[in-house]
Amino acid sequence: MRIAVVDMGTNTFNLIIANCTNDNYEFLYESKYHTYVGKGNSEGFIDNAAIKRIKKSFDEISLICKKFDVEKRIGMATAVFRSAANASNLISEINETYDFEIDIIDGHREAELVYKAVNRSIDGDLSNFVIIDIGGGSIEMSIGNRDHLLWTKSIGFGGLHLLNNFVHSTPVNSSEIENIETYLKPQIKEAVELCELHHVKAIVGVSGAFDTYRDMLTYDSQINFDKNKPSFEIRLRHFFKINHLFIKSSLEEQKKLPGVDQARVELMMVAGIFINLFIKETHINKIIQSKYSLREGALFELNEVNINTTND
User: Which one of 47, 117, 281, 294 has the fewest CB atoms closer than 10 angstroms to its CB?
Assistant: First the structure.
């Protein structure tokens, strides 16, 4: 079966199309659409400008689905859509207009699907790990291993909230960093304690900032890596170096950094502050970037259901 999956995030929609034959996956197409829905979410409503950007994205997505003869179209709407009063009607309209099956999912469901994706991307010898997904509208965290998802938490704010409420200068100053860390510590306290309890040794980062770290590190072949491999190790010294660049640079200087995603550049600094704090609190010394994330997790789950239904 040929399946299209759209991950509808706060800033970016991520599309993937794959041909699924039994438990084999041929990835045919992927693309990003910068919709910036979070910037158009005022007073609990997605505004008309953001809705136009959403529909324009789905106009393009629909044409691509037809080009690839997609048989099944699904999607997951996350953070910003959970809180917007008009999100449910908007999603219903998109489903009807573009022949999609999109659900607004909560943080726990999002973490479950990301876990399914990560489990297929990381090496088999990795034991307990903590998954971190820093979005524009929420931060999803979970702890698991190759056999079980042990714990999940959805923090009800993301990079946009941190940026808009704590950062008033560029480059960011030390007092702003301290204020962000003070604000974050109670939010990550449980995760830090559970990482110690379960002897977690690695962070598995998905999407957003982690993808950008990989792109910057591999830009112009600075670090060789297998593009077909679904995971990439970000060594701590490389993370600290990049994070330092974002903290010490103005926004204009950040935009000129080689390999940086221009659509995400504003959030890289606050994401780095979060990751750096988490490393300090847990003493974890390994970061793995997973190419697979929410959209792949949904793809794997749907295909598993189809296989089981066929076998029954």
Answer: 47
Q: At what angle do helices 294-311 and 107-121 cross, to 10 degrees?
A: 80
Q: How far apart are CA 205 and CA 218, in angstroms?
A: 16
Gap between the Cα atoms of 35 and 81, Å rounded: 13
Q: How far is CA 38 from CA 3, 136, 164, 216, 266, in A?
A: 27, 7, 12, 25, 13
Instruction: Report DSSP state, residue 235.
Output: -
Output the six-digit token pair for 129.
């790990």
pLDDT digits (tens, 9 = 90+) for 95-144: 999 999 999 999 999 999 999 999 999 977 778 999 999 999 999 999 99
Q: pTM for the complete prediction?
A: 0.93
Give the Cβ contact number of residue 185 at 10 Å: 12
The CATH number of 123-294 is which of 1.10.3210.10, 3.30.420.150, 3.40.50.2300, 3.40.50.300? 3.30.420.150
